[in-house]
Amino acid sequence: MPAGTGSLARAIREAIISGEFAPHQRLIETDLSSTYGASRAAVRTALLELAGEGLVDRMPHRGSRVRAISLEEAIEVLEVRIGVEGLCAAKAAERITDEEITEFRQLRQDLVDSVESGNLMGYSEYNRRLDERVREVSRHGVAADVLSRLHAQSVRHQFRLSFQPARAAKSAPEHAAIIDAIVARDPAAAEEATRVHLISVIEALRATA
Description:
This is GntR family transcriptional regulator. Residues 2-69 form the HTH gntR-type domain. Keywords: DNA-binding, Transcription, Transcription regulation. InterPro entries: GntR_C, TF_FadR/GntR_C, Tscrpt_reg_HTH_GntR, WH-like_DNA-bd_sf, WH_DNA-bd_sf. It comes from Georgenia halophila. The chain folds into 2 domains: 5-66, Winged helix-like DNA-binding domain superfamily/Winged helix DNA-binding domain (Arc Repressor Mutant, subunit A), CATH 1.10.10; 71-208, Four Helix Bundle (Hemerythrin (Met), subunit A), CATH 1.20.120.530. α2 crosses α3. A hairpin with a 3-residue loop joins β2 and β3 (63-66). 33% of the residues are buried. It is mainly alpha-helical. The chain has helices spanning 5-18, 29-36, 40-52, 71-95, 98-116, 120-138, 141-161, 165-183, 187-208, and strands at residues 26-27, 56-59, 63-66. A 3-stranded antiparallel beta sheet has the order 1-3-2.
């Protein structure tokens, strides 16, 4: 069970992203309190945080519901992410430590292996881990904070893509290229590889329309 408001917000966020809570679904505080073993005050605070991220709509006198993010809006968010995520990748390439290089090389192998073995659930998790670690290794607090909020708004549409074998086979080499540039400590290449990957995601999403 979530121990505090931060972990509670994270748990609800993950449920929204994965589709466990559907767009327009009402989020009833008493139900969430029971499900997650948290006080109603903690649930209310978590929902306010998620409303700030654009994942939840707070309706006066009517509670909260999962915000429906359109495909076009998700694409616009991705267009913004190109710049911010590219910056994080470039900073990660500048600031990565030798120990973190070892970690990133292992993550690269895990990503490739999961796609080759058809483990798309594992691939989705490694993908999420890579996004998270690039932000952390960038050590750029403002960019990482902006990116975490933008990512939450578009990732629900991307989540579906990650379970398409053909898409995973295409995106795995793109992720590998990002990692290769970061561990090579090449900021320009890391930024470019990130741009290429996100443009590819945008094209894939448009193809689903």
